[in-house]
Design brief:
heterodimer; A: alpha/beta; Glutaredoxin; seven-stranded mixed β-sheet; 7 strands; 18% strand; globular; B: 189 residues; five-stranded mixed β-sheet; 7 helices
């Protein structure tokens, strides 16, 4: 009679210990952020439903950048291809290890006549402090803070907790969406996939 | 009482066998290096530098022709690794210019979470003269305790095929002449 509950407790305990001993996946490893990274742990890979698809006209928007610039999507119409990189939140693990990589491949964007717009739902002071740790970024960082996540919502990448997905949208010069990657939030999209999609625009 | 004892035993066994306990220790000077394999570089110049043949698909640290290998755990996505890249290149040049160290001390990079494409982007961007290996699934990174980057590990290669860690530290290694002397001493040069 007493054996069964003990066994259940043990199974639970074992499960708990195993869960705790698995290292948090894909943490930010760069010393640049020191101990300022909030560890979220493993999150639900995708937690929203897209509202646009490849072939659609990309919905226009206006957001302010951390340098105080007003940036609209339509200002690039007929001039540049646009990559929109939504990352979930400042000061979190994988996100802090994504834009610094894009920061050293401006030539790959230039070669494909593309600009990059980085967007999060954080407010401007937070984004300013966070991106300062990355060195000087060559691309605009836009704040989708208020009304909260309105652009993320427009594209269907606003998660139920108010953060956005880790999503990439490639939009051509006509304003048509050519590629969408709503990535597993816990992982960083490999650079080569994005570059391949940019090369297809030629 | 007996139940509690059993629970404690189970806890101890599970903890001892868990990956966190077994593998997540960061490398420390004076200890042996963790075991891992790397893909044989496609580039002949890289193979020549390391002194390994192009026959196999993978190789181990013991296969490298050197007295000492400096491993940099880095990432294309890490701002400090980007900043440090020219300094590590200077160290490479200093080694190559030093008759005693050339051919005896070698450098390799391991790109934690980086694909081959990403490590190549890093090499091209910073003209990195030494091989940088991809570690796309963080396999090696997990074996070295998920260190922050850039992390430098100097490893002395022993005749019996084992390796001793002689230096393991996060961040820049300071002045190049002094650091090179330390490496030479550890390499027995």
């Amino acid at each position: 009679m007493t054996k069964k509950p003990a066994l259940n407790t043990m199974v639970l305990l074992v499960m708990l210990i195993v869960a705790l001993s698995v290292p948090a996946w894909a943490q930010t490893h760069s010393e640049a952020f020191k101990d300022n990274i909030y560890v979220t742990g493993e999150l639900k890979p995708v937690d929203s439903i897209l509202k646009v698809k490849v072939g659609d006209m990309a919905p226009d928007f206006m957001l302010f950048s951390i340098t105080g610039q007003k940036v609209t999507l339509s200002q690039y119409r007929g001039k540049k291809n646009v990559v929109i990189s939504f990352v979930p939140a400042a000061w979190t693990a994988v996100c802090s290890d994504q834009w610094p990589g894009y920061n050293i491949v401006k030539d790959l964007f230039d070669k494909n006549d593309a600009v990059l717009l980085g967007i999060t739902v954080d407010n401007i002071p937070t984004l300013y402090a966070w991106t300062n740790q990355m060195g000087k970024l060559w691309f605009p960082v836009l704040s989708d803070f208020y009304p909260h996540g309105k652009v993320a919502e427009l594209y269907g990448v606003l998660r139920s907790d108010g953060t956005s997905e880790r999503a990439l949208f490639v939009i051509d010069k006509r304003g048509v969406i050519r590629y969408i990657d709503v990535h597993d939030i816990n992982k960083r999209p490999p650079l080569e996939v994005l570059v391949r999609e940019l090369e297809k625009l030629k | 009482m007996k139940k509690i004892f059993i629970l404690m035993m189970v806890t101890a066994v599970v903890l001892a066998g868990s990956p966190a306990a077994a593998q997540s220790a960061q490398p420390k000077a004076g200890e042996k290096l963790f075991d891992f394999t790397l893909p044989v570089p496609a580039d002949r110049a890289d193979r020549n530098y390391l002194g390994i043949s192009g026959w196999g698909k993978t190789f181990k640290m013991a296969d490298i022709k050197a007295n000492l290998v400096l491993i940099e755990i880095l990432s294309m996505y890490c701002p400090f690794c980007q900043k440090e890249a020219p300094v590590v290149n200077q160290l490479y040049e200093a080694i190559e210019k030093d008759p005693a160290a050339k051919g005896k001390i070698k450098i390799i990079g391991i790109g934690a979470g980086n694909s081959t494409y990403e490590t190549e982007v890093f090499r091209k961007r910073y003209n990195v003269p030494f091989p940088v290996f991809p570690d796309p699934d963080y396999d090696i990174h997990k074996k070295c305790g998920e260190v922050r980057t850039p992390f430098f590990i100097a490893v002395r290669l022993n005749a019996n095929g084992t390796q001793d860690v002689t230096y393991a530290k996060l961040g820049g290694f300071g002045e190049i002449p002094a650091f090179l002397e330390t490496l030479k001493k550890s390499a027995g040069l």
